[in-house]
Amino acid sequence: MRHNLNSRPLRAGILWLAVLLGLLAGAPAAHAQLLRQKAYGTATGQETMGAMASLRAGGYLLGGSQYFGATPNRPGELYLLRLNAVGDTLWTRHYGLRGARGFYVQHALEDAAGRVLLVGSSFTSSGTTQDDAFLALFSPQGDTLWTRRAQSPFQDYYSRPQLTPAGDFVLAANLEGAPQLVRISPSGQRLQQVIVAYSPSDLGQLGLLLPANNGGYWVGAYNSTPPYTGNFVRFDAAGVRGIELPILPNGPAFGDFIYDGNEYIVATGEGVARFDANLNVVWNRTLTARGYLFGPDFIRATPDGNFVVGGGINTTSGGQDLGFAKISPAGLPLRDTVLIRPGNETLCGLAVAPGSGNYVFAGSGSQGPIGGEDIFWGELRRSAVTAARPGLAPANALTAYPNPVGADGVVQLAAGQALRGTLTLRDALGRELARWPGSGAPTQRLALPPSLPAGLYLLTLAPADGGPRQALRLLRP
User: Fold this and answer.
1) Which residues are CB-contacts of 227 (< 8 A; sequence separation ≥ 6)?
2) For this UniProt entry, which residues form the secretion signal (predicted)?
3) What is the CB-side half-sphere exposure of residue 104 using CA atoms within 13 A?
4) Any residues with CB less than 8 A from the CB of 226 and at least 6 apart, and which?
5) 36 and 379 in contact (C-beta within 8 Å)?
6) HSE of 136, CA atoms in CB hemisphere, 13 A
7) Residues forming a β-bridge with 288
C-alpha cells in the first residue's frame, strides 16, 4: 500500500477569542475557568478531528482528516497533530491511501511503546460504494509503521480497540458483512479472527467490544433497526465462545466506558450508567448541563475519585455546543459546564491532565477562525462551574429534530426567524448532496435523500440577504 508522506505545517491560533472575551466580560473571576483554547487548520482546507490520545510521554495526539474543497480532484488526507501539554503544535503529518477520497477517524489508542493505532473508515468514491475500514499504526514521531484496509461490498468498520497484556490489539469488526473478534500484533499480523454471528437474531451488525473479568471480551452483535434485538457474546482470552446475554433494551447502551476489572461506568446516549461484570444495571442516570439534557460521548476518571463526562448539547446557540459534567461514583451530578459558541462543535476527545486534574478536550468546529471547519483544543479548570450564560445565545438559532435522524429521513427545522435563502446538505468531505429553498417561515420540514448512507452531514442556511450563515450537523445512524 502506497502512502503520501509529504508534511505540511498547519497554522495554529486562538479559537474564537473574540467570542470568548464577550462571554467572560463582566463575569466573576471564579467563572473564567477556560484556561486555554487553540485552533488548528488552513485557510483553504476543511479540517475534521476524529480522536485524541493522551500520551504517556506527555501531550496529546490528534487524528483526523483534511479536505481541500477548493482544489479540484484533490482527495482528502489522513493527518496527525502532535501537541504538547499546553496545546502547542510539535509536528504534523499528512497521509494518503491509494483510491481513498476521504477519511473518518473514530478511535486512537497508544501502546506501551508509544505507538498509536488509528481506527477509522475511508471513502473510495462519492457515495456509490460502502465505506472501507482501516487501521494505521504510527511511531511516536508520526512515521507510518503499517496500514491495513478492509475492502468489501459491505459497510466495513472496527470498534474501539483494546490492548492485551502481551501488547496485541483486539477489536470487534464488521468485515464482509459478519461481526468478528480480531486480534492483531504490533507488527500488523492478524493473529486471531473469530466470527461472532451465531443465531438468527444477529443480523450482521457490530455492537462493541468490552473487556471481561475472565481476561476475555464481550462482543455485541445486533440488529441496527428497532427493536434492536441481538446478544452479547462472551469470549475468553483464547477466543473461545462462552455465555450469551441479550442486548439491553433499546439497543446496546454502551458508549465510552471505564472498566475497573469488575464493573463498568458507561457514557450512554441517555446519560451515565453503571453495570456489573455480568452487564446487569446497577444504576442509570440522565444528565443535564446548565439546564440542557445531553448524552455524553466520553467519560474519564478524576483524581478525586469522581468522573467527568463530555458530549454535545443541542441548545439555542445556533447548533451543537459542548457540555461537561462532573459526577460522583453514585452518578450524582456535582458540577456542570456548557461552552456556547457560534456554529456547531463536535467533541472528539476528552482527557484528565496529569498533575492538575484539569479537563482537556478537543474536536471540530464548523465556523472556525482560520478557514471553514477547523480543529479546536482546550483546557478547563477541574473546579469548573459555568463557562457561559445560555442567555447570550442568538435568538435566531437553527435547530433540527430529530437529530440523529430517524429511519424515515424526515427532519423538522426551526429558527427564531423566517427561513429565507438556500438550505444545502453536504457530506463530511464538503460535497453537496441536496439543496432546498427556505420556506419563508420559522419552521420547515425536510426529507433527506432516501439513499443517504449512515454518517455525519452538515446542513447550512445561506440567507438571501447575504447575512451570517447558519449551520448545524445532522447524524444519520
Assistant:
1) none
2) 1-32
3) 18
4) none
5) yes
6) 28
7) 293
- Backbone torsions φ then ψ of 217, nearest 5 degrees: -145, 150
Give the range among 259-268, 345-354, 400-409 with minimum mean pLDDT: 400-409
State the cell numbers at 176.
Answer: 464482509
pLDDT the model gives residue 385: 40
d(CA 59, CA 54): 6
pLDDT digit string (tens) for 314-330? 765 556 788 888 888 88
What's the whole-model pTM score? Answer: 0.72
Q: How many CB atoms lie within 10 A of CB 266?
A: 23
CB 436 within 8 A of CB 421: no
Residue 439, burial from CB neighbour count under 10 angstroms (0-12, 13-18, 19+):
middle
Contact yes or no for 188/137 (Cβ under 8 A):
yes
Residues in the chain: 477
- Name the band, by pLDDT with cuts 50, 70 and 90, for residue 205: low
Task: Give the torsion through C-alpha atoms of 119, 116, 303, 171, to 10 deg.
Answer: 40
> Span 332-342, mean pLDDT?
77
Q: Tens of pLDDT along 117-138?
A: 999 887 665 444 567 888 999 9
Residue 414: closest CA among 436, 390, 460, 445: 445
Phi, psi of 102 (to 5 degrees): 180, 175
Are 134 and 188 a contacting pair, CB within 8 Å? Answer: no
